[in-house]
Amino acid sequence: MQTVILVLVEVLIVIGLSRLVGLAFRWINQPLVIGEIVAGIMLGPSLFGLVAPGLASTLFPPETIPFLNVLSQVGLIFFMFLIGLELNPKYLSGNLEVAILTSHVSILVPFSLGTLLAVLLYPLVSNASVSFTAFALFLGAAMSITAFPVLARIITENNLQKTRLGTLALTCAAVDDVTAWCLLAVAIAVAHTGSFVKAIPTILYSLIYIGFMMTVGRIFLKRLANYYRRTGRLSQLVLALIYMGVVASALITELIGIHLIFGAFLLGAAMPKNAGLVRELAIKTEDFVLIFLLPVFFAYSGLRTEIGLLNKPELWALCLAVLAVAIIGKYVGTYVAARVSGIDKREASALGWLMNTRGLTELIVLNIGLSLGVISPLLFTMLVIMALVTTFMTSPLLELTYPKKLIKLDVVEQEPEEKETSTSGGEDFYNRPYGILVPVANPNSQKGLMELAVAIAINYRQPAVVYPLSLIELQEDYGFESTPQEADRVITQRRQQLEELISRLEPSEARSYMHPIVCTSSNVARETARIALLEQANLILVGWHRPAFSKNRLGGRVGQILTNAPVDVAVFIDRGQERLERLLVPYSANIHDDLAMILALRLLINRDTCRLQVLQVVAENQVRNELSYELHNVMEQLPQSVRDRIDIKIVEAIEPIQAVVAASEAVDLTIAGTSRAWGIERQTLGRYTDQLAIECRSSLLITRRHSQISSHITSILANDKLEIIN
Q1: Is 617 helix (H, G, I), strand (E, B) or coil?
Q2: 211 and 266 share a domain?
Q3: CA 261 to chain centre
Q4: Each residue of 461-482: pLDDT tens digit?
Q5: Domain limits at 96?
Q6: Cis-peptide into 201, omega within 30 deg
Q7: Are residues 511 and 583 in the same domain?
Q8: Which residue from 349, 379, 499, 680 puts its CA 20 to 30 A from 450's CA?
Q9: DSSP letter, residue 507
Q10: Is residue 512 within 8 Å of residue 421, measured between CB atoms?
Q11: DSSP string computed for 377-423
Q12: Does the pLDDT of residue 714 top 90, yes or no?
């Protein structure tokens, strides 16, 4: 097979496997990048080469590795350009003094410990051709790295960007990033020349080039920003010139004697931080780099990682020592510096875990060290394991140290104070506000959904609150949209859209019951369930939309929420009826129909003009279904004025669904439980049935019960009794 064909086949395998494993890691709440790194390792001698050595050598023969190396280097150059591009000085605007102290101590401590560890490792895992100075500098740099891009995404995913911890961590990581790259540049210079003294000219040339880029280069690049302000877009010619500049800058730093990646990073850092320019440049560049080239870099690294080299207990002990030094050095250095700066224990501890994130940045450093021959394949493998473990542990340890329920207490910009009438109430069940969480995917088309939430929630007898929820789903770990600054922009934009939607609600008094929530998420269904528990919502009211990859009408995210949410859920299929006066509940005596009934009763209590028809469909000579004991008790407590508006109708029919469809023609809203009787039962395996969702003539509300139905109505009935007594 021709080499080019073979390389393309390799790329095909690499991209497919990296996406697959990356998505699996996202599913367990880990950054996509860890999965992609693991996928690369799986393709190497650690797994694929071990399990099927013949096939592995056929698919990844030695003659194709240089081609993968070229692709990975090109990917790295443009990835480093993106990192520099996203390094916004705004990240340095908060707590700068604290951040400078914390970040430098968090580098100094692990760097020093790494240097001491080098004394132990140098005779064991290195050779005489490598100078101890270069070896110690590389090991120290590897221990002290914090991956700014991964940390920034973790902060965004956890909605920490507006918290004191988030802003401090971003500032620390930005300072850390610049310092660590400078440290690495010195280590590379020493590795090239063999000693620190001989590396001084290289360091001086590097400083001169940095000074040139930050003065003359920036002046020239400002013209680019002016051009963008004038035209509002980047033409292909301008984009070509920028990419040429990236490559040229990379070549200059390579000629100076540091590495290609520094020139690309420097050009990105020097670029004017015009928001529109940065966004367009990042979006146009990142897709090909992140999807195509970066996985090749991971595969190239994986092919060089041989976990089988750790074949003795003493080598695993050394690996554990490397891991311990990396974690303890970074954590203790950060924690102590933060405490000295006045940060409380919880935030200092969380900052220590966040700064331990190494991820892809560590992998870049290690590959440079291996390519230069400074670190051996054995030490490379140990450090790759260290990079994976430190990145993997960040999210769970952060959650353990700094639970998400505390995040909203630590927001720098406090939310407007809630109206007392809408959310006041103690912990007592009867006084607790009745809460509905309403995920809003499209604020422009879901006014009907919000109006239904208002109709169910507000009755002027019980405190109530409606949470319009807009979740911004993050797609890629390194995508520009996942940066804290871009996430803030999108959150602000989405909040404005929600506010506009709320301002159109009638009656106007209903607007004071709204408490919009906008945040980022990597898993919409899971985050919706989490917020429902956090806000103690009684009901999740979700709008229906057609799933992209399923014929099941209640599939996709709606189906995930419907199935997994730990509270009652109702799915609204809006047929455009403006009024919600005539209600229909087909009742077949199951728990989901009970919830349908209770929501209908709540609508009846809230609106004096509502009427309810309860439809029981029975076969010939069949006894009608009785109300459940719980529902029967509720019905007994209803005021006479409400009971007078309920009409119970029993019809005989062979096809219950057709009877309900026929009855739905005369009503505004049909409320039905997720039961087999109405053709909307969801099955774990086999065919999904959602016939009523397709054929119903009115708007349809599909309910799935999880908790006691009394939570929806008991407080209202208690207050009604009091009114009657008075």
Answers
A1: strand
A2: yes
A3: 28
A4: 778 899 999 988 776 666 677 7
A5: 89-287+310-408
A6: no
A7: no
A8: 680
A9: S
A10: yes
A11: HHHHHHHHHHHHHHHHHHHHHHHHHS-HHHHGGGBSSPPPPPPHHHH
A12: no
